[in-house]
Sequence to fold (644 residues):
Amino acid sequence: MNPPKEVSDQSRLAALEAYDILDTPPEPGFEEVVHIARILCDAPVALVSLVSGDRQWFKARAGFEPCQTDLNSSVCAYVLSEPDLLVIPDLTQDPRTRANPLVLDGPKIRFYAGAPLRTRDGQAVGSLCVIDGAPRPHGLTAAQQSALRNLAAQVMAQLELRRALAERDELITARSEADRRRAALLTLGDRLRDLSTPEEMIRAASEIIGTTLGASRAGFGYLDVDSEHIDIVSDWTKNGVASIAGRHRFQDYGELLPDILLGAPLIIDDVRVDPRTCADPEPMLRLGIGALVNVPVRDHGRTVAMVIVQDDKPRAWSGEVLSFLRNVADRLEVGVGRLRAESDQRVLNHELSHRMKNMMAMVQAIATQTLKGVPDRAPVDALMKRLLALASAHDVLLKEDWSSASLRSITVSALDRFGLGACFEVAGPEVQLGPRATLALSMLLHEMTTNAVKHGSLSTDAGRVSISWRIEADLERPELVVEWRESGGPAAQEPERRGFGSRLIKMGLIGTGGVVLRYLSTGLVAEFRAPLDQAQQS
Amino acid sequence: MLRMMAVDMVEDAGFEAVEAADATEAVRILENRLDIRIVFTDIDMPSGVDGMRLAAIIRERWPPIEIILTSGFTTGEDLDLPARTEFFSKPYEPERVVAAIRRMAR
Fold:
């Protein structure tokens, strides 16, 4: 006999599917219900029977051995269309059940009473039933009927509760995975900032992808579209998984290239099923690849590389995972771009400063030639020396990529040209100055030394100059203080005429003053102050 | 312009200067004259052999000749200078170069 048409109703089957209950292990909530039903109805068998499209499966059973039967043996299938209880006092007398194999053979069941298991929307997913081996002409008592209805409601409540718990767990898992991915992106950002080669960046990103997604492999490959290869650089692998770093030909693994050329992510949940790889999944399986995602990294509209993630078993890659990978790819692109920009900048700075040095040599040559016939050599000499002082400041910066220079090397280089090393005492902590402050300090030291040689302490053999610097950090805005102290020479005299040299000195470390000159009988003492951040940045 | 200044510097110091536009000309002069004692050359020259190569050639073919190099492209630390060679970063200080010439000519 054909099962009733309600069995195959699509919305009913969808409702059953939504509980995700078929073939799950026994649970106490349902076991208790069949136990109580059996006692209340004084029946040897009680079942929580769920009727799917092709079988009935028992979530809980008492007094009955099989865990499921085909629909041919199902009495419960007839409950689905019942508004209330279905009670069949003698199964051998009912046209629907008299040919049932369980009635004819096997346990030879005779009495059946079932309460439909209905969702709130009215979809019947099965029945809670009691079965007896002897017919019961009077069926169930009113109290037993009422109890069976209430117990059926209890089964539904269990099913709903079970589903709510599963949904909550899923939500919690999804949220904690989202948190992990967010934290991973932050960590990646931090690590990329500190790394200085693309290889290190790729390694860091691969590791973060692999550990965050719990994948078996994560890596990065450069695309060679012309030869249809991918060069996988060092990949991260789960413990015990071999690396697949090296050159791979797309052709060897299936129809992967068309998607890659389009610049779309390549997503395969199961290499044995996916149309692009199912023809021969062996090459993938041999490498321990059950599922994979390749996210393209694009440069000027072309796919140049791929972020690669693989799992050793089939895996449904979620949209969140994809957007996480895209985020990682973006960050990697930005990081590598930064490195490239920095390296370009270095090359440019280097080239520029060489040109500047050659230009200064040219200025020097022009000035030399132009001023050749000038009889008063002192100003000519001063000009040449200042040009050289500027050039030497330049050299110090050039050695450190034109970004900053140490205060000590600036000082040593500025004084070096005078050949008076023994007369200077230089002391101070390690401080880096920016390009502008470097030039200013070099010119300033040049003028101070020139003056000291002409009129100050260095005009005598016993004269000395001590140059020291310190950082006054306890101010609201920390300051750099450089002190120039002459001794052992004649008493210092304030000059009557203010020339270019003294104006240059007055401009101080960053061109805004902050200079105190004291003409003492023991010699000139000068103090130069500037906010530290300005001296370091400008 | 730079060569003009260099020539002036050498002559003002009391020496005779022989100019060469590039390394090839310098080698030709060295092949034809035996009275050259010091070669002062820029490392970076517009075409052909550069100053470093010229210095190496001189060291090999005319070992007694002293060499002074200058360059705007390096500050000197990264150079592998041949023996008995002095280096001055550009722009150089004429007094120092002259001092080196006098020392070598002694």
In short: Chain A is about 40% helix and 20% strand. Chain A touches chain B at residues 354-355, 357-358, 360-366, 368-369, 372, 384, 387-388, 391, 395, 398-399, 417 (CB under 8 Å). Chain A has three domains: 5-165, 195-334, 371-537.
